[in-house]
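Sanity check

After download, print the first record. It should look like this:
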Amino acid sequence: MANALIIVDVQNDFCEGGSLAVAGGAGVAAGISRLLAAEPERWTHVVATKDYHVDPGAHFGDPPDFVESWPRHCVVGTSGSEFHPELDTGRVEAIFHKGEHAAAYSGFEGHADDGECLADWLRRHDVDRVDVVGIATDHCVRATALDAAREGFATTVLLELTAAVAPATTDVALRAMEGAGVIMHGQPVISAA
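Expected structure tokens:
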């Protein structure tokens, strides 16, 4: 069996200067790149997810409530939807786009360009263990890790390579992941805002 690193939504709009920036996002991008360079044999496979909005309806709010609706972000065709330049994507074998026409938080809701979903891709590559990193700990990382565990993958979140939106939602996310049997290492970067 094999293991995989799932890089969640390390995109310009979620990093400093983006439309829905999370403090520490650029640092997470650089940290993931450093780890991939330092430990090239650690993962058999590396995949990534992208928020990839065309018209996600009520997911974009004007004004946003920052609970169910958010500022416009990661719109297809904009620089905000691109991976952060500090993220080295050289090892990324597949990218799973999510949220084109509805809210989508988990990478397991996404699909590759050929339509294959993340769970099927991982199983086709004999993956049984996944490590999850990226943005944001309390939203898309949480949802992706919970779905990975539900799909039967042994799941670990490398919290030191995640950035979180807020302390309260991060506490809820950490409890949910622990309750689902997700292993967690380190501490996330959490915005003080």
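If your output differs, re-run the checksum step. Summary of this record's structure: The chain has four helices and seven strands.
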